[in-house]
Amino acid sequence: MDKAKKIISKNIIVVFLVLLCIFFGVANPNFFSSINIINLLSQMCVNALLAAGLSFPIILGGIDISVGSQMAVAGVVAATIGVKFFPNMGYGTALVVLIGTALVVGTITGAIIGYLIAYHDVLPMICTLAFLTILRGVAYIFSGGGPVTGLPTTFACLGAKRLIVTEAFPNGMLPTNVIFTVIVVIIMHLILTKTVFGRHVFAVGSNKNVAHLAGINVKKVTLLGHILCAITASMAGVVTASKLQNGQPNIGDGYEMFAIASCVLGGTSLAGGRGSVARAMFGVAIIAVINNGMNLLNISAYWQKVVIGAIILLAVVLDMFQQRREKSV
Known about the structure:
Layout: H1 2-10, H2 12-27, H3 34-59, H4 67-85, H5 91-120, H6 124-143, E1 162-163, E2 174-175, H7 176-194, H8 196-206, H9 208-213, H10 218-244, H11 255-265, H12 277-296, H13 301-328
Antiparallel strand pairs: 1-2
């Protein structure tokens, strides 16, 4: 019994997710249908990309609430490049435009934010709050205040295309955005757990002064952490633009809250020093299952906002409780 209790307490997030799936499955049998499962996985992609990157600043003891606006800038830039320079792009060119834009835009925005935080000691909350507005304004300026349209169907290769055509799924069974997201999440997980940089991220988040005395370049680690966060946010933006087949300057509004909640639900501490990209995906799954299940039950969108807000509050309270328990031990 003691072992069972320890296993459950360590994996409470997994138990909660399983119970949620059982509840919605009983309430509506369509929840476990293959079509709904595929749609559920596709719906998780954007938040999964955001949470995978946001894990780094949070583990470092900071935060980045501008990821939604970073999404918008990357999506608009990718769509604009497609319309102006590659109106007849093939699938290969579309992939290069989408992924290349995410890498470039993410590196630039992440470097600016990370530089201000790491080298000028600007508080992460204040810095990213400012860029939440600045980058949203840049997205509107770049797009002329409206959506960027006129893209070829090949632009949808990363966000809306599906592979493995069957009789039951004539349009394809496996969404490309799911494949792309899994690859990115795995890379982020490996960076955090299998590299020297990843160990330095945990060290800096646990205690900056001790990390500095141990010879770790705290400023460089902080800068790189924010760059990785911005790159994954930009990838979420181009995936969304690809799915919509246009660049919307208003996409990603409020998405930072879902990503933060996913990280905290997955055990990432807002105080820094503790977290996991892999476990953050369980938080992503919980939020996606709740949204999907409540839609199947025809629950009002207003109540959905209340429930998600309550989950975010619960995640923060649980994190504070965990911190207090660790200090008392």
